[in-house]
């Protein structure tokens, strides 16, 4: 369970002084060593979700601290599907928890903050879920800050497979163009840049770029049935 995605936000100076006591050990090896040393955590289940909120699930935690402002749920054509409980309670790419049954599976594809509207995609391969790239802000670099453009691997969410992309530096912003369209790019998440197993840095996603018509044909063929 590689945690490197989260390291980009640590300053270069601070990271130079960090020591990782488990080194290159896998979780399986760590558990075996913990059993050898008779540590009580040796058989404890892996932690899941947001550890510090205790037994509450994430939705309950957010609702206890954020005012719920309901609004409409619509697809890209404006067809209404119901009412959501509040935009902060949904994640781009989310399928479950929309409270809508019947018909094709719906996925959260976007949020219109001004209109308090949740936009959904019809099916996992609806083009509205895909992006050619993104714009990200406030990059943090663990190498000498690059200039111009360069090609690298990127990750747009924790544990996602690395994908190729071209990164262009524009002042305090980064423009990322994927080698192939990516699904469920979520503003507010981090895009992290890699070269092999080296974390170059990362930035906060601000805008997902809509998929171009030229790239529509690269999506799975059955997306046409999901969007008719």
Helix content: 10-25%
- Inertia-based shape: globular
Q: What integer value in Å does the Rg equal? A: 20 Å
Helix tally equals 4
Total DSSP E strands: 10
SS-based class: mainly beta
Question: Averaged pLDDT, please?
Answer: 88
* Low-pLDDT residue intervals, each spanning 5 or more residues: 222-228
The fraction of residues assigned to DSSP E strands is 35-45%
The main sheet comes to: 6 strands, antiparallel, barrel
Cα-to-Cα separation, first versus last residue: 39 Å
Order of helices and strands: HHHEEEEEEEEEEH
Spatial sequence of strands, sheet with the most strands: 5-8-7-6-9-10
What this model shows, in words?
The protein has 228 residues and is mainly beta. It has helices at 12-15, 27-36, 58-63, 223-227, and strands at residues 71-75, 80-84, 106-112, 117-122, 130-141, 149-155, 163-170, 173-183, 190-195, 198-210. β6 (149-155) and β7 (163-170) form a beta hairpin. The chain is globular and about 60 Å long. The two termini are 39 Å apart. Mean pLDDT is 88; it is low at 222-228.
